[in-house]
Amino acid sequence: MAGNTETIIHKVVALILAVSIDLSLFYASDFVVIRGVLGHFTRLWVSAALRFLALTAVTLLILGDFKPILIRFITVYSLLPAVFETGTKLFYHEDTQCGQLADLRCWLMSVGAMVGAALFWEITFPDTNESAAGKESKQKSRALLIRVLRLSKPDYPLMLGALVFLSLAVIFEMFIPFYTGRVIDILGGQYQQSEFLYALLFMGLYSVGSSVSAGCRGGLFMCGISSLTCRIKVNLFEAFTKQEIGFFEKTKTGEITSRLSRDTTLMGRTVCLNVNVLLRTFIKTVGMISLMMSLSSKLTFLVLMETPITGLIQNTYDTHYQRLSLAVQDSLASANTAVNEVVSGIRVIRSFKTEKLEFNRYDDRLMDIRALKMHRDMIRYVYLLARRVRIHQLCFVMTIFQTLTYIFGAMLNSVGAAGKVFEYQDRKPEVSTDGKLKPDQLKGHVNFHGVNFTYPTDQNKTVLQNLSLELKPGQMTALVGPSGEGKSTCVSLLERFYEPQDGEILLDNEPLKSYDHRYLHKKVAVVSQDPVLFSGSIRDNITYGLPECSLKEIQEAARKANAHDFIMQLHKGYDAEVGEGGGQLSKSEKQRIAIARALVRQPQVLILDEITSSLDVESENKVQQALANCPNQTLLVIAHKLKTIEKADQIVVISGGRVEERGTHEELMDKKGSYYKLRENLFTDNGGD
Ligand SMILES: Nc1ncnc2c1ncn2[C@@H]1O[C@H](COP(=O)(O)OP(=O)(O)OP(=O)(O)O)[C@@H](O)[C@H]1O
Q1: What digits encode the pLDDT tens for the residues 472-482?
Q2: Where are its TM segments located (predicted)?
Q3: Edge-to-edge strand order for the sheet containing 634-638?
Q4: What fold does the segment set 446-686 form as a domain?
């Protein structure tokens, strides 16, 4: 607190001293006798240099440091009168009153002009080093805008064509009032038919030309927009698919779909549309300013003097509007999430009768959106009102000029959506997929070495603790243990859905992450307890990701998975549709197709995570027989039905994220440890199945 007061006192002292010294120098310059134009300019520039040096010295002595913003303020302030005076003399061969006399009014005027110019500059083009959040976000918006424009590169020919038609439309449009005036003049004065028809003809031609050009311009812009939007969507989708599993657990589905559907469209559309309006207005402005300059340059400058005020208002408005627009987008994403959750979990909602609760949740989110939108619209209303009041005061060209700054602001606002899209697009997956290793021969020897792991969504709970495990080629290892102790987590790590925080997982003595992503997922295949099928045919689902598979290979895999017979009984056999999410098949049939999908890859490491839970005894036996026919494969089985894994070469009991026991069924039964107890419990609970 004391430090703050001291800084304020320093600043006030520096300001008073700077003003006093500056005023003294200003009045002192009046005592210097000058002769001729050269003398006049020498006095002017020497006085500017002295003021600059004096103000710099005061700032350095009292404030100690020298921020870039202060250098700019002092430079503009010291040099502005000299630049103005020299410019007026060079271009208009006139002297300004202020250049001649040391008058307090002139000093005040130059201070006002400097403060206005410096403020406008600082707000419109802020310094990168300055940390103010608003300025940073402005700069970010500009960078985003440039990035969106770069992304539109393939559409530049379309844009160029649109620009040509745009220019034509504006030029034609500018000529129409001229000929309308001629028609009115002819009708009001002496009527001459040939001249009247001539004016009418040109008026019609320019009107048609303007409409046709405007139509072509619009069409080309629309083509550009749809092509850009498509590209943005594809890029974003690709970026999403590359993210690690943890990302999808942390990011809500509504957020992802909202970014993909709404933000990408907004980004492609708004930026392009604004570019369209911006260019049109820009061409009009250039035309109008040239016309005005040819009539009176002084009047033009007078009119343009209002630009800094327009800029300031626009700037303040943009900052608030952009912040609220981002908040609205986030709330929309959250409302979408609520809808998605309700649709996907409608059975649970119905069975728990929580429709009202879900309705209220959705309603709350809509209310948030409404409140934010009202706030945003209120700001917009005040802004438009301010604009309108000033428009009534000023002439037509200012309207155009304001539209330019307005559209530029609107473009910055629209890149808020682009910001979100790029944020995801640039996100580097936490689990990298850039390994290169693709050995011709893989034994399938897996080693977990002192693995520690916590899920990204729950960093406080260590799920695996110093876990070490070896899976030997050609052997079957069974992971058993109570629920929620980390068995499936081992599988997820082997699949590289997550990266362990400590320790490593080796495949044939090489870290898993050094393997090529596609190669790894061909060699390490998983069949999980809730297999996911995609809409399409059975054949599509079995060969998922392996389009080069032959029908013979597909059938062989299906036979091993005990699926061939039921597939052949279907009306279209392997071409039968499975429905959305495999909804047209029973749970056991889905499971068997998932097993075939894994087997068709001829994996070196096969993981079966609780697959027996949805298979009947007969299917289970057949699948196990088929798997037993692959002697070189490394097999990892997670099972709750302990009877199914008695023949395993190694049984590993996992408890509390650690290996508690390991050995064959006989060894572990003799030991009478946790495995023995687990079996005992199961026998007492469900009769030992
Ligand atoms: N995606 C996740 N995010 C956060 N925690 C998780 C996640 N998946 C599992 N867990 C937690 O990690 C622990 C181990 O889960 P895991 O699924 O590996 O157990 P499991 O032994 O396979 O259980 P089950 O036999 O019931 O399948 C559990 O406490 C679980 O709550």
Answers
A1: 888 889 999 88
A2: 12-32, 44-63, 156-176, 196-215
A3: 524-527, 605-609, 634-638, 476-480, 650-655, 658-663
A4: Rossmann fold (3.40.50)
